[in-house]
Amino acid sequence: MSLPAAEIKPAITRLKRAKGQLEAVIRALETEQDCQTSVMQLAAVAKAIDRAGYLIVASGMKQCFSEGGDEMDAKTLEKLFLSLS
């Protein structure tokens, strides 16, 4: 199953933002900047990646069930969703 780009555009945007945040964390660590700020930014990156994953799985579930997907597709999506927790 492939997902339409329009459906996952918010997830792609979120991942790009997380990429920028992660690059900022790496720069901060390399230049020995404030550790507390780096940890807070790293937590924000992790949360953004998690949310993007949920958006992608939710889009897949929506598509699967709207198209009358088979049981295997539903089980696969459930497994993917649970792997994010």
UniProtKB/TrEMBL annotation:
Family membership: Belongs to the CsoR family.
**PANTHER family xrefs:** TRANSCRIPTIONAL REPRESSOR FRMR, TRANSCRIPTIONAL REPRESSOR FRMR-RELATED
**What keywords is this UniProt entry annotated with?**
Copper
Gene Ontology MF, one? DNA binding
Please tell me whether the keyword Nucleus is annotated for this protein.
no
Q: What protein does this entry describe?
A: Cytoplasmic protein
Q: Where does the sequence pass through the membrane?
A: none
What organism does this protein naturally occur in?
Boudabousia marimammalium
Q: In its UniProt record, which GO terms are filed under biological process? A: negative regulation of DNA-templated transcription
Query: Does the record's keyword annotation contain Nucleotide-binding?
Result: no
Q: One Pfam family from the UniProt entry?
A: Trns_repr_metal
